Amino acid sequence: MTDNVENLILEHLKRFQASMDRVERRLDEMNARLSNLESAYASIMQHLTHLAAADAAQQVAIDNINMRLDRIERRLELTH
After folding, report:
1. Closest CA to 43 of 35, 55, 53
2. How far is 48 from 20, CA to CA, in rounded Å?
3. The pTM is what?
4. Cα 60 to Cα 53: distance, rounded to the nearest angstrom
5. How far apart, in whole angstroms, are the C-alpha atoms of residue 71 and residue 65?
6. DSSP structural state of residue 59
């Protein structure tokens, strides 16, 4: 009788261990996917930062063009 109980407990423990192994593998997969998402997010943020810098540079160039145009209009007395 004790052998049957011990075998039953051993079988339950084996199933539990197999289940835990599956959970651990799945957790490892999820961690890998999360790491990939974090890397992609960092890359997107870096790209957005570069776009913002390019936008700022273009705005400075536009402001310089506007100042030059204003000076030209004043010299030619085209302003009202």
Report:
1. 35
2. 41
3. 0.65
4. 11
5. 10
6. H
Q: How far is CA 11 from CA 1, 17, 21, 24, 30, in A?
A: 15, 10, 15, 20, 29
Q: Beta-strand (E) ranges in 5-60?
A: none
Please give the single-letter amino acid code of residue 60: V
- Dist. CA 73–CA 79, nearest whole Å: 6
Q: Is the pLDDT of residue 5 over 90?
A: no
- 8 A C-beta contact, residue 79 and residue 73: yes
What are 35's two structure tokens?
């790491």
Q: Which of 77, 40, 6, 37 is nearest to 48 (CA)?
A: 40
